[in-house]
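$ fold --in a.seq
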Amino acid sequence: MKTYKAYAKVNIFLKITGKCKQYHEIISRFMKLENLYDTLSFVPKEQVDAKANAFTILGDFSCTTEQNTIYKAYFALKNATQSQKLEQLMQTYAIQVEKNIPAFAGLGGGSSDAATYLKMCNEVLHLNLSLNELAMIGLEVGADVPFFIYGYNSANVSGIGEVVEEFQEELLEIETYTPKIEISTPKVYGIYREDFYNPIDGFQTQKLKEIPSKDALKLMSPAEANDLFEPALRAYKELKNHYKAGYHFSGSGSSFFRIKPEKEQKYG
C-alpha cells in the first residue's frame, strides 16, 4: 500500500489578535518542515495482530486510541459523509503510523497526522471532497489541521486556524530541537489570557502578513515573535535551561528552531 507523509510545521511568528468565546484568534506564519515527517499507511488487518471490527492504529503513541487525532478525524469524517465505505475500510485495514515528530512539541504532529488521514481516505475511497470541505472537517479535530489539509509550504493562518492563505516564499532549511518537556497548550494559553493578554491591532497584523519569514526571524526576538513564549516559560520554568541564543519558539512549545547555518545547508 502507498505510504503518505505527514509533515511537521513551525510557527515563524504567532501573535494573538483577539478572543472568540473560549478560543484565541491568531495571526501566525506556518512553515512546513520538509525534513521532519511521520508516515502513514493502510495495512490489511490479516497481516497484523488487529481485531477485525475495531478501529486500529499501529504506532508509538503516548495516548489512547480514543484520544488520538486520527481516531477523532475518522469520526469527524464519518459524521460528515455517513460513508459506509469508510466504515468498511477501517474494519478491514489498520492505520499504521511511523512517528518521527515529537508529541506536545509545537510542531503540529497530531494535526498533521489527522489531516493526512483525511486526505488518504478521500483519495482511497473516492469521496470527492474538496480541500475546503476537508479543512472544515479537520477543524473539528484541531485548529491547526486545515493548514496541513491545504499542503502549502508557507501560509498565513488566522481566525482560530480556519483561515489559511498561502504565502509565496522559498521554503527555509530549518533545524529544530525539542526538550523532553510535555507542554499543555491550554495551560499556556490560560496563563497568556490571565497575565499577558495584549492583542495586536489590524495594522500590525497586516504588516506581519506581508513580511518574509527570513526577515521576521531576523528582526524579532523569540518573545516578540511568539506571544506564547513568555507564558510557556512561566508555566514550565525548566524551559529556560534549554533556550539557546539564535533560536525561536514554535507554537506553545516545547520545540525551538532556527534557520540552519549556511555552511550546513545542502545545495543543488
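$ fold --in b.seq
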Amino acid sequence: MKTADWKRVSPWTRSVSLAVSTFAVALLGTGCNPECVDQFDCRADNGQPPAGQQWVCVDEKCETEPVEQPPTPDSGTPDAGPVDSGTPDSGPGPADSGTPDAGPVDSGTPDSGPVDPTPDAGTPDAGPVTCENTPHDAKLGTLALQPGFVATETAPLPDGIAALGSSPGPTYAFYAVQGGGKDAALYSMGTWPNLQLSTTKLYDVVTPEDRAGSVTVYAGGYLINDGQRVFTGYTTGASGSPGSIAAYDIATPASSSFLSAPKNYSAAAFSSGDTSAVLINGGGLGTLPTGLGIYGLVTSENPLGTVRVANFPEGTVGSGFTAVADNGVAALGYFNGDFVNVIYGVAPAVVAQAITSGTPLELGSQSPIEVGSEFDSASSFGAGVVVNRGGYDENFSFVSTDVSRFALSTNTGGDTVTVGARAAVLDYVDQCTTVTMLEPLGSDVLVGVADKNGQRLVRLQVAP
C-alpha cells in the first residue's frame, strides 16, 4: 500500500493491519537466539573493538565499522547570513562546537530583513473588522448622512411590525400592523416621538372568511392614516392573489369595513383641492374590472368611491411603489417586463382629473424618474420622493448602496412634472446597518434602521 493510499484508509482498518503485522513478527522471532540486540551486547561478548573501529549490531550479529570523525568545530562567530529556518540541511556541514554564539539570541523566527530599530508598541492586533467591532453612530449606525440633510429625533421600533404610518401633522398619531399572516392586527402606537405599541388590538386586518380559510395570507407593507380612517391591506396565496383593504374608522370602530383589492402592493394618500383619495397600486378595487394599475379609494366621497386612476404600459409584470410628495406630485411605479421597478412623476392636476372624470391616465406617458438602479422601497420626502437603491445578488437578496432623493415640481401649467437630479441622502459604507422602511412624516421622512444596536426610526429633514 502506498503512503497516499494508507492515509485514505479508515482508522479502524489501520488498527487491524497493525495488529496483524505485530502478530507475524512475533511468530518469526521464535526460530533461534540472537547474537546481539545492540552494540553493548557486542562489547560485553567480544571486548574492545580494533583501533578506529566500533561495534554495531546488524541483523542480530556483531560487526565492526569505522568510527565517523567529527567535522571541524564552528569558530563561534555568528553567521553573517539569515537565521536558519529550522529545516534540516540538504547536505553535510560543519558541526556546531557547542559554544553559544557570541551574538544576540535568535528568536527562532527567520529574519525577513534588517532588525526594526523601533520596538513594537505592544498593542495587540484588533483582529478582522466585523460588524461587532465597527463603530456605530447612535442614530444611523454605519450609514453616512450626506450634505443637505439632517437627522433629528429617533425612536425605538418594536419587533414584528409589518407596517406603520402617521396621521397628518402637526401632532403625528401612529398606528401599526403587528404580526403576520392571519394574525395581523391593527394597534395604536401613540404619538411621535414617544412611540409605544399598545397591547390592545383595535381591528383584525384580515377578513373573517380568510382567517377561517386555508389560504396563506401576506400582510401588506403600508398603512395610510388620513385623520379619519386607517387603511391597510393584505393579499393571499390563492390564484390571482386576491386580497382586501381594511378601513378602520378611528371615531366609530363599529363602522370599520373591508373592500376587495386583489394584488394590492403599496398605497399613498393623495389630496388636491376638494379631491382626496388613497391611491392603491394593485390589480383591482371593489367591483371595478381587474387588471394591474393604480386605483383610487375616494375618501372625499361619502360613501367611499372607487375609480381606476392610471393604466400601466403593456407588458407590465407586477405592481410597484407609490408615494405622494407634500406638493401633491404623485410618484407611481410598476414592475416592468425586464423585471425592474420603474417610477414616474405625475402632476396633482392630472391625478385629480383622472379621479373626478373616471378616465384613467396613461402612466407611460408621464415624466420618468430615472432612479439609475433597482430599488426596494419608496416614500415621499418633502417636495420629492426618496428611494432605497441597490440590486439583487445571486441569492436574490437585495444589497443596498444608498438612499437617494429626487425633487419633484410642476411647470407653470401644472400638468407636467420636472424631476430633479439624484441627491444622495444616506450612503451605505458597509452592510452592517440596513434600511428596513421609508415612511413619510409630514414633510420629513422616517427611516427604519436595523443593526447590532437593534431597530429604530430616525427622522430626516431637508437642511434649511
